[in-house]
């Protein structure tokens, strides 16, 4: 990683968000075809609460191509940003694309469940979250009941007599 980008990331991590954003925007203007720079620029906008400004940078980063470990975070950033902007269908589309490429990315599924909630797909949101819980927990009692949780995860509206 070059020293300028490392400096910008350090500024962002230390809460110097405006300065980090200004420097990142300048870096992207110098190298607009650098997908990683576009991703970092989107992140600085998100950190400032300027979600609308982040979107085109996430989109450009994904379009330009990123290493898989960065791409999954770019999808998460874009999907989450669409959700916070109230663009729930776009958010859902991004998360579903991301999950098709990264089906084991449990952190994506959490944000996807939030989008499903916003779309009033409550049953699917709960099913997603319950499955994440049983896949990722180390809690003994939850593990003990994982078969029951899994069984009921897609039957939350069903009753038995």
TrEMBL record:
Q: What is this protein called?
A: Tetratrico peptide repeat group 5 domain-containing protein
Species lineage: Bacteria, Bacillati, Bacillota, Bacilli, Bacillales
Please tell me whether the keyword tRNA processing is annotated for this protein. no
List residues of the Tetratrico peptide repeat group domain.
38-156
InterPro entries, sorted: TPR-like_helical_dom_sf (IPR011990), TPR_5 (IPR041656), TPR_rpt (IPR019734)
The species this protein was found in: Lysinibacillus xylanilyticus
Task: Reply yes or no: does the keyword Transmembrane apply.
Answer: no
Q: Which Gene3D superfamilies match?
A: Tetratricopeptide repeat domain (1.25.40.10)
Name the domain of life this protein comes from: Bacteria
Keywords, in A-Z order: TPR repeat
């Amino acid at each position: 990683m070059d020293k300028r980008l490392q400096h910008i990331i350090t500024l962002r991590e230390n809460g110097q968000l405006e300065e980090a954003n200004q420097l990142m925007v300048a870096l992207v203007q110098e190298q607009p075809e650098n997908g990683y720079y576009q991703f970092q620029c989107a992140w600085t906008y998100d950190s400032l609460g300027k979600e609308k400004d982040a979107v085109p940078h996430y989109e450009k980063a994904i379009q330009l191509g990123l290493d898989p470990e960065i791409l999954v975070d770019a999808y998460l950033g874009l999907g989450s940003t669409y959700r916070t902007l109230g663009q729930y269908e776009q958010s859902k589309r991004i998360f579903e694309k991301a999950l098709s490429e990264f089906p084991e990315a449990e952190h994506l599924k959490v944000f996807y469940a939030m989008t499903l909630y916003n779309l009033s797909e409550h049953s699917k949101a709960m099913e997603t979250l319950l499955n994440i819980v049983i896949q990722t927990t180390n809690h003994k009692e939850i593990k003990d009941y994982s078969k029951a949780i899994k069984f009921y995860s897609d039957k939350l509206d069903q009753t038995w007599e």
